[in-house]
Design a protein that fits this description.
The structure holds two protein chains of two kinds.
Chain A (H helix, E strand, L loop, with lengths): L38 E6 L2 E6 H20 L1 H39 L18 H12 L1 H21 L13 H16 L1 H20 L11 H4 L6 H37 L5 H48 L2 H22 L8 H28 L6 H32 L5 H4 L5 H7 L4 H31 L8 H21 L2 H10 L1 H20 L6
Antiparallel strand pairs in A: 1-2
Helix pairs in contact in A: 1-8, 1-16, 2-6, 2-11, 2-12, 2-17, 2-18, 3-9, 3-11, 3-15, 4-5, 4-12, 5-6, 5-10, 5-12, 6-11, 6-12, 6-18, 8-9, 8-11, 8-15, 8-16, 8-17, 9-15, 9-16, 10-12, 11-15, 11-18, 14-15, 15-16
Chain B lengths: L3 E5 L5 H18 L2 E9 L9 H19 L3 E8 L2 H16 L3 E6 L12 H6 L5 E6 L3
Parallel strand pairs in B: 1-2, 1-4, 2-3, 4-5
The chains are: A mainly alpha, B alpha/beta.
């Protein structure tokens, strides 16, 4: 916050020069709830603790229960998780697809509406971060890691099913037509990584930021429900929402960390003949967790922001390197062609009803939407925390449109290059490689592959660190009743728990099963997000406009 | 010797610094010094205030109360931060220059092993500023 230096000698009585200008008319919600009123504070063994009694203890018990159950009854419980998830995507696929469309329409509508002028944190609030720092953090938290693994895999997979006319092809495919199949593959990939996921994050982030910075409620999922539940949000309905958010975030992160370590280890084995053993993977998880702990101890500004900036700079280097040494012209023209192809296919791809490509719409699209939505409490809460001082319009353009174009460029570069290698150059190695290795095999066809592959591995690892550190901050603030200034050891605790769960499931099995369960939380969160849409409109309507 | 004493204050944990406040007052009276109460608060709502502005009003009221007790001139300064718990040390170091303090008085805990990874705020400030720093072991 900007301050002017003060001259103490001129003061003879109390004066206030801390915050020079008012932050603009605030329209705080009138509630008697005091943040942290349900918290338990203690000083055990020299460690200060400040936790929401119910949310922390019940979350901890549920987390422990699920880990033990999954480890002990793996063969019995995995099919149950799978059945729940299949039921959701098969029977409620339309609900996910329809809801995601609502989120996109709302976000685009808000960009163009007069409500877009409202500033998060009050009319005169100043942003806490530069554009670069802010964008790096939201992108690294949002989907960086996914782009590394699926940038090559997904376009190639859709191309394969479309060209072969398989039952998993999007929109009935384009059998035997390489150009048509490539266009359809890129459109489908961009659909899954473009406007919709970012709109999902934007809805959560905007609603949380609005109700925290402008309405004065704690930075916690429950606050979004205030317009509907009123004061009851501080009781059990609110506890359940927050516990669900902890569950989704913790298991989402821990299982991704475990699976990510498996994939990174596969990459290391492929590149450097590192032994593909449990030890390698556990060392990777411990390493990632340790760096994440350093990052959260350094804090959002000096830890998470710094790592995110390094991450985005390295990712940009890799991206521009592939553009430069790969099929440059094809990527340049492909960017616009793919955008066009996306625009053409968007109505059919986002249609929730009467789909003939059920395998694709349920197995891919509904799965992705559930996945993004289950991640949204974590990503949304983190984005909200760092977005004070931005107008709603600025926020939505940066959280939705800019990442969309970056995703299109990334997918065009990595996916387009891989498809080109396969179609034009007849290189089948990329298509035949495992999911974990496709990126590396693609890079191998380009110059300096030893260096680029190494950069790619480092990127994967740092992306995991940036997920782990921001995720631990989010879980800590939810379990501390919305406090962001709870004692530091608590955030370290969550980072360690995340790593420990990843290692336990890696050794005992059940990573995929528990991840399925975490993604299943996408269903209740879809309902929560729809409520958030209503809350955003209602909240914004009662805000004074920025000048 | 001292013209402006900076006193970091956390309104959420006022009880823990209460004993230090009278020592600050004694020293300020002895040197006829000005006292600047400084706070670092979260930009999100906290247990003390729902906005940084509200926090500032409360700190101002606190300073006025103290002024009534010791009679020395007082002023305040509030910093808001995305991550106050991690940034408090560097903000306090910056505050020393911005408020023109020549002495910082703050409470701290007894040395412990954990300080190796999580140093005390007082220790961190003392090693990063040119001003004199008076750390009060309130636990004693």
């Amino acid at each position: 916050m900007e301050k002017k230096p003060q001259n103490p000698s001129s003061d003879d009585s109390a004066s206030s020069e801390g915050i020079p200008a008012p932050e603009g008319a605030a329209n705080l919600i009138d509630t008697d709830y005091v943040i942290g009123q349900d918290n338990i504070t203690t000083n055990a063994m020299g460690l200060n603790l400040d936790l929401h009694g119910k949310v922390f203890s019940i979350s901890a018990i549920i987390v422990l229960l699920f880990v033990v159950l999954t480890l002990a009854l793996q063969d019995t419980i995995a099919p149950i998780y799978d059945a729940i998830f299949s039921f959701l995507t098969v029977n409620l696929g339309w609900f996910f697809i329809l809801s995601a469309n609502v989120f996109v329409v709302l976000c685009i509508g808000l960009i163009f509406s007069p409500l877009g002028k409202i500033r998060i944190g009050g009319a005169d609030a100043k942003p806490d971060f530069t554009y670069m720092g802010w964008f790096s953090m939201l992108f690294a938290a949002g989907m960086g890691i996914g782009l590394m693994f699926f940038g090559v895999n997904e376009p190639l997979t859709h191309f394969g099913t479309s060209f072969d006319g398989g039952s998993w092809a999007p929109l009935a495919g384009a059998e035997g037509d390489a150009t048509g199949a490539a266009a359809l593959a890129m459109a489908a990939t961009i659909f899954h990584w473009g406007l919709h996921p970012w709109a999902i994050y934007a809805v959560v982030a905007l609603s949380l930021a609005l109700f925290s910075f402008n309405k004065g409620l704690p930075l916690s999922m429950r606050s979004v429900f205030y317009p509907i539940l009123g004061e009851r949000v501080w009781g059990w309905p609110g506890h359940i929402i927050d516990i669900l958010a902890v569950f989704a975030t913790l298991f989402g992160l821990a299982t991704s960390l475990g699976l990510g370590a498996t994939q990174a280890a596969a990459g290391l084995t492929y590149l450097f003949d590192a032994p593909e053993s449990d030890v390698t993977m556990i060392l990777l998880i411990i390493g990632i967790t340790l760096i994440a702990i350093c990052s959260i101890l350094a804090g959002v500004d000096k830890g998470v922001q710094l790592l995110s900036k390094i991450n985005i700079a390295m990712a940009a280097l890799l991206l521009f390197f592939v553009i430069a040494v790969g099929p440059t012209l094809l990527i340049a023209t492909g960017f616009f062609e793919n955008l066009w192809s996306y625009a053409v296919h968007l109505p059919a791809l986002s249609n929730p009803f009467g789909r003939e490509d059920a395998n694709f719409s349920q197995g891919w699209t509904a799965f992705y939407w559930a996945w993004w939505i289950s991640w949204s409490p974590y990503v949304g809460m983190f984005i909200a925390r760092v977005s004070r001082g931005r107008t709603v319009r600025e926020f939505l353009i940066s959280v939705m449109l800019v990442p969309f174009f970056v995703s299109v460029l990334w997918m065009t570069t990595f996916g387009g290059t891989a498809i080109d290698q396969y179609v034009s150059q007849g290189i089948e190695a990329v298509r035949d490689a495992g999911v974990d290795l496709q990126l590396f095999v693609m890079l191998e066809q380009l110059p300096l592959s030893q260096i680029t592959s190494f950069v790619a591995i480092v990127l994967v690892i740092i992306f995991f660190v940036t997920s782990s550190d921001s995720g631990s901050l989010v879980i800590d603030s939810i379990t501390a009743g919305g406090k962001v200034d709870a004692p530091k050891p608590q955030r370290v605790f969550w980072a360690i728990i995340e790593g420990a769960i990843a290692i336990a499931l890696l050794l005992g099995g059940g990573l995929t099963a528990l991840q399925t369960m975490a993604v299943s939380t996408g269903f209740p969160f879809t309902i929560i997000l729809l409520v958030a849409c209503y809350a955003i409109i209602k909240g914004l309507m009662s805000e004074p406009k920025a000048v | 010797m001292f013209n402006n004493i900076m006193v970091p204050v956390d309104l959420a944990h006022l009880d823990t610094i209460e004993p230090a406040l009278s020592i600050v007052a004694d020293l300020a009276k002895q040197y006829d010094a000005h006292i600047t109460y400084v706070s670092v608060t979260a930009s999100t709502p906290t247990s003390v205030a729902r906005t940084p502005q509200e926090y500032e009003q409360k700190l101002n009221a606190f300073a006025q109360e103290r002024h009534k007790v010791h009679g020395q001139p007082v002023s305040i300064k509030v910093y808001s931060s995305t991550d106050p718990i991690a940034n408090v040390d560097s903000i306090l170091v910056k505050a020393v220059d911005e408020v023109g303090a020549d002495l910082v008085m703050m409470g701290t805990h007894l040395p412990r092993h954990l300080d190796i990874v999580m140093p005390s705020h007082g220790g961190k400030v003392a090693t990063h500023t040119n001003a004199s720093v008076f750390l009060l072991r309130l636990a004693q």
